[in-house]
Amino acid sequence: MPSVLVPLAQGCEELEAVTIIDLLRRAEIQVITVGLDDGPVRASRGVVLLPDQSLDAVLSQEFDLIVLPGGLPGADHLERDQRIRDLLRRQAEAGRRVAAICAAPKVLASAGLLDGHQATCYPGAINPADYPRVRFTDAPVVVDAQVVTSRGPGTAMDFALELIAQLMGEARRDEVAAALVRS
């Protein structure tokens, strides 16, 4: 069973966080949520999320995927956290997947993990001039090698379904999508 780490920062976008966690768990993927600090996480619109563990408790573990929910100021907190930056770099150096949605691709960009890749993000979250080695697009979801990015809350379901496809294959993604009755 693939393992996925979802760091939850104060002020994260709850729709993105919950959609990612929910859909990956529906696909029977092991999802571990962690808080940057101990205790509950108050998301950007006041929803309170309870992480499974603290970030410090998982720093030595390996994951098949690390996914960053966006939202502000959540993405800013992720970007400033050296533990997150170190985890992401170690993940990329090992050839394992990283993913981010909404404003969180800026965390990947500032860590140098988008260099040479195509990526997308929430409009205005990243100044493309600051990252000339990244090819930005306005596509809803972008997969480039081991990096997956997405635009925002409205693309969260497509993003999560793509993560399922990356980890478990298209057939599993299609099973989860069918059960959601999206059309």
From TrEMBL:
Ranges of residues in domain DJ-1/PfpI: 3-166
SUPFAM superfamilies membership: Class I glutamine amidotransferase-like (SSF52317)
InterPro entries attached to this UniProt entry: Class_I_gatase-like (IPR029062), DJ-1 (IPR006287), DJ-1/PfpI (IPR002818), Prot/Nucl_acid_deglycase (IPR050325)
Pfam families xrefs: DJ-1_PfpI
Domain of life: Bacteria
Gene3D superfamilies named in the record: 3.40.50.880
Signal peptide range: none
NCBIfam families found in the cross-reference section: not_thiJ
Name of this protein: Chaperone protein YajL
Native organism: Thiorhodovibrio winogradskyi
